[in-house]
Design goal:
By secondary structure, this protein is of the alpha/beta class. It has one domain: Ribokinase (UDP-N-acetylmuramoyl-L-alanine:D-glutamate ligase, 3-Layer(aba) Sandwich). The protein is built from eight helices and nine strands. The strands form two sheets. The protein has a six-stranded mixed sheet with strand order 3-2-1-4-5-6. A three-stranded antiparallel sheet has the order 7-8-9. Strand 8 and strand 9 form a beta hairpin. Helix 2 packs parallel to helix 3. It starts with 19 loop residues before the first strand and ends in a 21-residue tail after the last helix.
Amino acid sequence: MIPATPPLNPVAGRAMTIPIALCIAGSDCSGGAGIQADLKSFAALGVYGASVITALTAQDTLGVRAIHPVPAEFVQAQIDAVFSDLDVRAVKIGMVAQSSVINAIAAALRRFRPVPVVLDPVMVASSGDRLLAADALAALRGQLIPLAALITPNLPEAAVLLDEAVAVGEAAIVSQGQRLLSLGCAAVLIKGGHGAGPESIDYLVHPHGVVALAAPRLSTTNTHGTGCSLSSAIAAGLAQGLDVEAALRNAKAWISLAIAAADRLAVGRGHGPVHHFHQFY
């Protein structure tokens, strides 16, 4: 069930308290993925979004044309600015690109009070363009994964993190999820969007068991930013006080509707975005 959007009007003249979530990711100038998708997801689900930009990308629905990394020191300065002023209740981390940036994010997050972190290990764009430097993989494994309440790799990303072949079948997927747990995160969601069959099945693997979450596999080419949007929707639920499984169930229901409504939007000539605001128009 998708949570109701909080009332927009202050009560009795007082300002409304709103949960705050922070996204740390790259910018997508075409608006479908990255920081832009994160902020749209937060807004659609009634959460105030702050952002830390790790890289600028020149991309559109056809692919990534150029990437301009943000210096690690400035990434750290952005995080410091947000946490020193805002009451951040959850963090989503997406594209981090370089090991120096990963190290800066990890060091900055450790300095502040613990908040749940959703890590989406973005390595390759939906167009096939690589977004994570090869030498940054070890830093991702060693620095950020242990800080995460949940990591959300798709099937190819899970395989890269483990240096294994892409898992086929439930037993192999669950086995990879369990090995990813050993890297130090609290839970793993292996997404099934790259799988086959009439259903897209995501597997939530945590120390106490496995939860399989199935949804019909939808026929659309407009899936740009799906992974970014799902992980930020989970972070929105955590910011609202839900536990990981409840936040995930809400987020999956919401992203399924956003994908189903994607063809209502005519954006770009390639893989268009999902419809973040499907419940409004």
